[in-house]
Structures are given as C-alpha cells and as structure tokens.
C-alpha cells in the first residue's frame, strides 16, 4: 500500500452515526406501516404473524440502541442529560410504543406503586426499560408487573413476569456480565444486560452508583429484572 | 394499557384537538406523511407541511401554530435547531406553542446542540402515534397548569411568580421541579439570596443535583464572590460533567478574574461536549486570542463563521474576527501552503461579509479597515495604505466621520499601514477617555503595549518567564539578557521593560553604577511613553523612575 494509513481510515464515529440515523428513520416507517396493517387485519392467523413481526422490529430497535450506546460509552461520547422525570411517564411511553405487540401477544401489564419523580437521563433509561420490558415479554406467560419503590437506597424499578423464571445458568451469566468478567458467550441478551448495567451505573448520587439485578423473585412468580437508581 | 383504552383517550381529546393548527417539517415526504396521518388520527384537522427551514419560518409568518413538529434535518441550509432559534429571535412563535424537535440523530454534538436550544419536547425516532399522543397530551397539561406562572415569568412579575411557585410546591403539585427551578431564577432577579440559599441547600441535602448548585454559583457571581462561584462550578462539573451551561459560566468567571488560560481550558472541555454553539465558539476564539494561542483561535473563529452562516446569530463581527486572527497569526502558521490557504479563507470572509451585509455602510467601512490590516500583516504596505485611504473616504461620507466604536480597529489599522503617530493618538485618546467601555479600553491599552503578532507575543512571553526565573535565582546578568531578547520581539511591553529596569538596578546594587546599564534603563523608559496614569503598571513605572533618579542621578 502506498497510501498513508491515515488517508485510508474511515471516520467510524460518523459512519456509525449516519447508519444508525438511517436505521432509525427506516424503523420509524416500518413501525408506522405496521400500525396501519394491524388495524386492517381480522383473522387470528394473520394477527399471530404480525405479532412476530412487531416483536422482532422492537427487538431490532433495542439491539441497535444497545449496540450504539455501548459504542458511545466505549468512545466516551455518550450524551448524558439528567432531568427530574416522572418514571411512570417513561414507562407509559414505552408501553404505548409496544401497544400492538402487547395486545396481540395478550400480555397484561400492571403498574404498582406511586408515581415517583426521579433525577435520571430519560432517553437512556427509556432504552434500558425497553430492553427490560421486551425481555419480560419474551419470558412471560401472560402477565408483567412493573413496580416502583422508593427506599433509602434510592429508586427501584422492578419488571416481573410470570414465566418459568431464569435457569441458574442464565443467572450466573448475568452475574458474570455484571461483575465485569469477560463475556464468554457473546449473545445479544448478554450485551443487553451489559448495556443496562452500564447505564444504571452512570446514575450516581452522593457516592453511590446504580445497578441492575436479575433473579427469580418475581412477585407474580417468574423472572425479575430490577433497576436500582440512587 | 390496551388499545381500546388509548383510543378512548384519543377520542376524548379529539374534541379539543380538532381546533389545533399544526405544522410538520421533515426533509422526507414519507416521514411528513406518516406524522401528518398520526396527527390526523388524533383528531387534528389542520396539518401544514414543509420540507425546509425557510418553509417553517415562512409558514410561521403566515400562521400562529399550536404545535410544530420539526425534524433536525431539513432541506436547505438551516437545521431544526437553527430554525427554532430564529423563530424565537423573530418572535414568530405563540407563547404557548409546543415546539417539538424530531430527530434520529445520535451524535453527541448534534443532540447537545438540540438540547441547548431548549425545544419544548425532543422526540427521538422511531416513535409511534401512541407515543406522540402522550407527549402532546402531557405538554398541553403542563402548559395549562403553568400558563399563569409562565406569563408572570415572561412579564418579570417576580413577587407574584414566587407566590405562585411556592403555592404549587406546598400543594405538592406535579410541576414542583419546574417551580423550584423557576424560584431560583426569581430569587436571583429579586436578590432574595437567603431564600435562594435555603432552597438550594435543602435540595442538595436530599441528593446531588445540578440546578441548585448552578443557582448557588449564580448567586455567588451576583454577590461578587467569584472565587466561591468558581469552586461551586468546579464541584458541579466533577459530579455532572455534562452540565454544559456550567462550563460557560465557569469560563466567564475565570476570564473575569484574569485567569484566561484556565478559561480557555474550560471552554475546550465544553466544546468537546457541545461544539455547535455559536456563542461558545466565539468566546473560545476571543479567549484564545488573548492567550496568544493563534491556532485555537483560528479553529474556533472558523467554526463561529460556519455556525453563524444561515443562522440568526450571524454577525459581521464573526468575519472581521476571522480576518484579524489570520492577520495576527500569519507568521506562526507552519507552511507556505497553509499560509496561502488561510489568506484565501480570510479573503473569502471579506467578500462574504460584503455580500451578506450589502447596503450597510458601517460594515463596508469595517471590512475595508480589516482588509488593510490583512494586507499589512502580509507586508503589502502599499495595498494596506490604499485600503486605509478608501476607509477614510468612506468614513468622511458618514455623519460624524469615523464612528467612535470603530476607534480601536481604526487605530490598529493606522498602525499597520505605517501611520504610527496618528495610531498612537487615536488609541491613547480611547484609553484616556473616561466614557470608553472597559473591555475596549483594555484592548486598546493591550495593543499599545504590544502591537506585534501573536507569535511574537507568545515568544516574548516565554522569554520573559525564563528571565523571571533567572531573576528569582538572583542570576541578574542572565535575566537581563533574556529580558532584552524578549524586548527585541515586543519592545513596548510595559511589564517587560520594567523587568529589564529592575534587573539592571539589581545588577548595579552588587556591581555599582554602570553606564551601559543606566543607558538600558533610560532606553526602556523611552519605550514606555504610551503608559498613562490609568495603566496597571503606572505605579511601578513611577516608583522605578524615582529610584533611578534618586540613586543614580538620572532623570528620565
């Protein structure tokens, strides 16, 4: 190669930024068309097919957000804008975005606790809760329970499902991710958890940092992902 | 939270929504269509569309919209952030408009820029109709709840505003966070500092938060406690390193207390997070020029011009500043090629400013003066003189001749074109006129002290520092040599000349009176005839002159 390496290098930050921008625009159109189609469908069979499409589109959106978010964290260029936000408003928006999916999958969502105003980054936390709730949609039987609790340690947001609960091997993998151990089996699920943990830990207060906990302590007997923000 | 629930809600709202006037702006037809249909699905009848920033501004001249959904990316050369800033500046928005910036952007500089322009809502793509409906509903609810207080705020009726905010907070209203932040503003405006302090400290007891710390810092500034403000802002930035307004405030505090190098460092940090702000880039250009950092000044000045173009913030000053920075940094750029490129850029700036502000005689005058300075900096004295005489003709055609606010630029231009005595007269009268603005006076005085390029200034500064450390080590012989080297680069610098005098005097303390050292001192004082009573170094100058007269029988 006679050219200097510098001349040849792609400005990757820009390439990724432009590509994600494009994908977001596309997904916007896909989601919009899906809502239209959903209203026209009447057979049970076609609705079942649509439900798969909706689930996968939402998943794609989450994967893109977590991939891009982790890239921004790694390159120290993540935007963090803390605001005082009513947490149920965030959750309400997320559920509204999954409206069709939840209806078609016949998953009931219950909100428990008082609405609490908390100091957090609403855009990043929306991504985290989107991942957590979609994860619950995947594992639940037919119900998801989201609980807000304000304790001395801060705010706890629990997303509980009534599925089978996580097998030990999955819980172990989660704890390895959290402990910062190298991810042996890089899966989208692991990356999602890593993203959630990193975003939670960016939320700090009086020397404490946020965290995520995965266990089978669901109040409706199943799995549970808990996000703790100090 | 199922569909039926949502549709009921939408139906309830639609009666009110039917009357709303809305505008959708997006560069893509399909995106405009989908948002329009979402709005229609909510019962909104009036939905206008446009693809360009100019289209938004024209539409806002014709209609008073209730809701504007504007994408960041638009056709033409204005983005959504610039459109919002312009609409505000031109007062084309209803006070209760809901302005939503829609965006699929991900890069921090863009997102931070959008946030800093403070739209009512930032909606990131992709979103569904249900999400849009919720955001709008919340905005309307908030607008309704706060409308009276927002009116009081706009009218600066603080006493009533404070009452309203306190009542809302005491009733544990939903918008208590907004009320608390507004209270800080109101307390600042009415100088209720103890109330402000109580409120902020109470909030900080519960948790780390940015706005109470920012409020306390602003209070310290108002009270003149700059050091307290600086330490508060530094603490805030340690906890929340992306509180962008704290950087700007901190840089200003540091600059005001003379710490211009630290101010530049802080602005650099701020620009790393949010570079797309015209005001910030301009501040950076000014501060780094003060520091003699031509490279940084040039970069920031280029960005200032770039961000100003197509925006409401465009100012002839931006272009003139760029030309001056190129002129002052002409001997520091690395290669001939770089220099050529910079000159071309400066010429471009001169022709752009002429075009952009055609029919403006004052801009034409400033431009002609700047042209002369640029020519002079390149050694083209004849061209510099030509431009200068053209400027003089322009000024003579104006009412009252050369406008006083251009005296600084005029003086610098005269100096560059070789009319040094005239320059000195113009600048001295600026320095000695008690009605001169403080920063203008300072700049005129600085120029009289050091009418040399920024590279020469920087080099002289380094040599001076070297000399001072030798002086501190009592090596006066070598110190005097360093001061002389520095003076060869910047002969009129008061501090430097007086350092030389002091060095010579110290040397004579041990070695006795020496004719050549006395001559050095006399020459130094001769170079300081421009130092007037107002100058920071004046007292020191007088003291040293008297010492010389008394001990060595030398009258200067």
TrEMBL record, chain A:
This is histidine kinase. Its EC number is 2.7.13.3. It holds the Pfam family HATPase_c. It comes from Marinomonas piezotolerans. One of its GO terms (molecular function) is ATP binding. The keyword NAD does not apply. Keywords: ATP-binding, Cell membrane, Kinase, Membrane, Nucleotide-binding, Phosphoprotein, Transferase, Two-component regulatory system. Residues 22-230 form the Histidine kinase domain.
From TrEMBL, chain B:
It comes from the Bacteria. Gene3D superfamilies: 3.40.50.2300, Tetratricopeptide repeat domain (1.25.40.10). TPR repeats lie at residues 244-277, 460-493. Keywords: Phosphoprotein, Repeat, TPR repeat. The modification 4-aspartylphosphate is found at residue 71. SMART domains: REC, TPR. Residues 21-140 form the Response regulatory domain. This is Response regulator.
């Amino acid at each position: 190669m006679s050219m200097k390496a510098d001349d040849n290098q792609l400005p990757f930050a820009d390439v990724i930024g432009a590509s994600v921008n494009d994908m977001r625009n596309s997904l916007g159109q896909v989601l919009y068309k899906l809502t239209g189609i959903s209203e026209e469908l009447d057979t049970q069979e076609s609705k079942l097919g649509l439900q798969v499409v909706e689930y996968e589109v939402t998943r794609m959106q989450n994967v893109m957000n977590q991939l891009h978010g982790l890239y921004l964290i790694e390159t120290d260029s993540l935007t963090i804008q803390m605001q005082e936000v009513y947490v149920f408003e965030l959750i309400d928006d997320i559920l509204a975005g999954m409206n069709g999916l939840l209806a078609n999958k016949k998953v009931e969502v219950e909100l428990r606790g008082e609405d609490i105003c908390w100091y957090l980054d609403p855009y990043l936390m929306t991504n985290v809760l989107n991942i957590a709730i979609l994860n619950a949609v995947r594992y639940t039987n037919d119900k998801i329970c989201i609980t807000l609790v304000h304790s001395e340690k801060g705010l706890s947001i629990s997303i509980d499902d009534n599925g089978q609960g996580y097998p030990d091997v999955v819980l172990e993998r989660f704890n390895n991710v959290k402990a910062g151990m190298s991810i042996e089996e890089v899966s989208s699920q692991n990356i999602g958890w890593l993203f959630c943990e990193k975003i939670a830990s960016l939320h700090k207060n009086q020397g404490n940092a946020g965290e995520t906990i995965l266990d089978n302590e669901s109040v409706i007997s199943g799995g549970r992902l808990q996000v703790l923000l100090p | 939270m199922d569909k039926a629930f949502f549709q009921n809600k939408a139906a309830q709202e639609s009666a009110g929504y039917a009357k709303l006037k809305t505008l959708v702006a997006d560069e893509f037809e399909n995106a405009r269509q989908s948002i329009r249909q979402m709005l229609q699905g909510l019962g909104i009848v009036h939905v206008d569309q446009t693809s360009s920033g100019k289209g938004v501004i024209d539409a806002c001249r014709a209609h008073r919209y209730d809701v504007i959904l504007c994408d960041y990316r638009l056709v033409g050369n204005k983005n959504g952030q610039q459109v919002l800033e312009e609409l505000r500046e031109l007062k084309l928005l209803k006070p209760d408009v809901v302005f939503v910036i829609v965006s699929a952007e991900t890069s921090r500089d863009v997102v931070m820029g959008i946030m800093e322009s403070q739209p009512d809502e930032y909606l990131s793509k992709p979103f569904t109709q249900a999400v849009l409906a919720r955001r709008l509903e919340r905005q309307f609810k908030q607008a309704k709840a706060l409308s009276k207080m927002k009116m009081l705020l706009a009218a600066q009726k603080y006493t009533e505003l404070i009452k309203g905010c306190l009542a809302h907070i005491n009733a544990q209203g939903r918008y208590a966070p907004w009320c608390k932040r507004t209270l800080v503003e109101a307390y600042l405006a009415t100088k209720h500092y103890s109330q402000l302090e109580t409120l902020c400290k109470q909030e900080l007891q519960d948790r780390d938060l940015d706005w109470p710390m920012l409020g306390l810092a602003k209070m310290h500034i108002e009270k003149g406690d700059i050091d307290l403000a600086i330490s508060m802002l530094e603490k805030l930035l340690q906890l929340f390193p992306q509180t962008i307004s704290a950087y700007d405030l901190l840089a200003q505090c540091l600059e005001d207390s003379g710490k211009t190098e630290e101010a530049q460092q802080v602005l650099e940090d701020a620009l790393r997070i949010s570079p797309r702000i015209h005001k910030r880039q301009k501040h950076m250009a000014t501060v780094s020029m003060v520091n003699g950092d031509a490279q940084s000044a040039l970069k920031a000045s280029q960005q200032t011009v770039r961000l100003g173009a197509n925006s409401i913030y465009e100012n002839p000053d931006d272009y003139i500043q760029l030309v001056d920075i190129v002129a002052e940094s002409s001997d520091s750029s690395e290669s001939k090629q770089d220099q050529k490129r910079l000159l071309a850029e400066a010429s471009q700036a001169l022709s752009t400013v002429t075009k952009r502000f055609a029919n403006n005689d004052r801009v034409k005058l400033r431009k002609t003066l700047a042209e002369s300075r640029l020519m002079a900096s390149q050694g083209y004295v004849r061209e510099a003189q030509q431009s200068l005489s053209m400027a003089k003709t322009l000024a003579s055609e104006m009412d009252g001749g050369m406008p006083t606010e251009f005296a600084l630029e005029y003086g610098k231009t005269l100096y560059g074109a070789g009319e040094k005595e005239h320059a000195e007269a113009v600048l001295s009268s600026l320095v000695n006129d008690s009605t001169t603005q403080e920063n203008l006076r300072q700049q005129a005085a600085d120029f009289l002290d050091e009418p040399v390029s920024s590279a020469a200034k920087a080099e002289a500064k380094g040599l001076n520092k070297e000399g001072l450390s030798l002086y501190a080590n009592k090596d006066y012989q070598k110190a005097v040599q360093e001061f002389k080297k520095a003076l060869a680069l910047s002969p009129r610098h008061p501090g430097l000349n007086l350092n030389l005098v002091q060095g010579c005097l110290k040397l004579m303390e041990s070695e006795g009176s020496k004719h050549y050292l006395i001559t050095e001192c006399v020459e130094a004082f001769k170079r300081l005839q421009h130092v007037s009573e107002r100058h920071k170094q004046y007292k020191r100058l007088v003291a040293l002159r008297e010492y010389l007269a008394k001990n060595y029988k030398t009258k200067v």
